[in-house]
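User: I'm putting together a teaching handout on how sequence relates to shape, and I'd like one worked example. Could you take Helix-turn-helix domain-containing protein from Algoriphagus pacificus, show the sequence you're using, and then write out its predicted structure as tokens right after it?

Assistant: Happy to. First the sequence, then the structure tokens directly below it.
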Amino acid sequence: MTELSPQEKEFLDKLIAEIKLHISEEEFGVSDLAEEMNMSRSNLLRKVKKMTDLSVSQFINKIRLEEAMALLRNTSSNVSEVSHQVGFNSPSYFIKCFREHYGYPPGEVGKHPEKQEEAYSDSSSKNPQKRTLILALSGLGLILILLGTWLGKDFFKSQSNLEKSIVVLPFKNDSSDSTNVYLINGLMEATLNNLQKIKDLRVLSRTSAEKYRGSSKSIPEMADELNVNYLVEGSGQKIGDNIVLNIQLIDGTKDRHLWSKQYRREVSDIFALQQEISKDIAKEIQAVITPEEKSRIEKEPTDNLKAYDSFMKGLDLLNQGRDENLLESVVYFEEAIKEDGQFALAYACAGMAYYYYDMFKADKTHLDQLGTYADKAMLYDPTLGESMIAKAMYYLAKKEYTEALPFLEKGLEFRPNSSLIIGLLADFYANNLPDTEKYLEYALMGMQLDAGSSDSVATSYFYLRVGNALIQTGFVEESSAYLDKSLEYFSGNAYSQYVKAFISYAKDKDLNHTRDLLQIEYNKDSSRFDILQDLGKVSYYLRDYDAAYNYYSQFNEIRENLQLNVYVHENMIIGETYEKVGKAEEGREFIESYRAYLENDQTAYKNLGLTMYYAHEGDFERALTHFREFEKEDNIQYWVILFLPEDPLADKIIQEPEFQKIWSRIVDKFWKNNAEIRNRLEEKGIW
């Protein structure tokens, strides 16, 4: 930027003053500013470009962000409030722009020292000495710009301003020998795993990248679909005892090759090769690697190359999935363990293979083997992310959920970009220890790292998870949009249609409509006893007890015949339904089984259950005692807000003045928390 004349400085001051006058108006743009300055749009563009080397829209955004920084430092306004005050009606977009401009998110302003803004901020014009100093520095800046141009660099759009988001595309096997594919895939996997250990990066999952294997899409198309700035391409082959690997880093936004390198190493140097590649990539995009991360990257999994060769063959099969591949992968992992009895990574992956094999089976036939392998992995390397995953999977398979959580959380500390661990945590807070905020947070985190696989069905269920997390937290429209996206990928996703049936009630408060939608889904698949149970519940809410009994009796017959210990938490209203149709003795059995269930309930809903139980018993004093305790709970599901007023069990106690006051506070707290959750997730850059 050249030295400004007094007239130019005056012009910039006036320009900044006009922008600040309209700073909260998101729609205030180039044409509006030109009109306020009594100039044509083209003249304004030329003049601002000449003085600042920025476009007018860039200049407006810069002033907005400077004002945001001042508000964040000097006021008590939160990020969402500031974003609206400076004309960003989308806090998530504000966070993105702020991060790109300052290098860190607005929520971390307090952690960074205050820095002087550039000369054309109007605050400098009030201090002649400061202005002279800044103009002198601007002269130096001009030299740097010219030098940067000479070196082929774009000063204002340097790599450091890009978000450090990256995807490692599938490496290509340059050899005609297809038996080497597992080796090339293993090198890609190792590169990905090492990068995933760096918290300063956002590294997309392997499944996100896998769908582009053999794809003809352009780099910008892939970058746009994956929402990443950097892409890593690789190809290689094994020639005798040597590996030749070509790696290149590409700026996806510009389709520009930033760096490339050919690595020639002996097979015996494979671990050093893996470490070197990941460090070179991280260095090129200026990612910060902590000493702990560096130590984890540099740790060699084994000193036995024969064991590692067997391991890579097993890993390739594990990543392919399907039962036959999972069992075959264990054969190779066991070969690796036979060669190196302390190979923690091989133990962990063998355990994971057994977990996936048994995942949807009622009889966990490999539970003991999973436990043994997980213990061995932890014994030989308790700082390995995969060891933590295997141990957590063992407890999840045993349904000892609280025991699994510390291993999942520690695993994420070791592998901050692991979409596998994040997915397990999302499901944990959805099903095992319900917490709507954490469920939503991990579901959204997973979405940032996993752009879906080549399998449209799997992608559909991925969007279902996010949609389900959103509705449970009260974000109705957002949830509906994700479920629609889920159905775009796989129209036969019955679970997405199932959740949408309940979303319909959130929108129209028409229980008959909800029941009709559930009936449509049940007619498609009469084995869906989960829908059968909900048809009974909605009929119960409608006070249509005969219909509710009809559905529940079918549901209970299935539950009994298959000896399923499921939906015990629904036994209270099932028992109430039976009593309403004159089946008092059977109804009582269900109600007492529910009371026994509550004894061991560790969720936030235990006191609500006891409230309903004692309300049914006519003991309103004890019911209110438990309702007061339930009021203390945070992050309850939106379903409680929607359906508790419809529950016949509450018909009598809902008339109690204290119940009404507590309920009013619970509802207010829910919606306040809803807004705060959104703000917190936006500040973290997750929303």
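A couple of points you could highlight for students: The first helix runs from residue 6 to 21. Strands lie at 165-168, 172-173, 202-203, 230-239, 242-251, 256-266.
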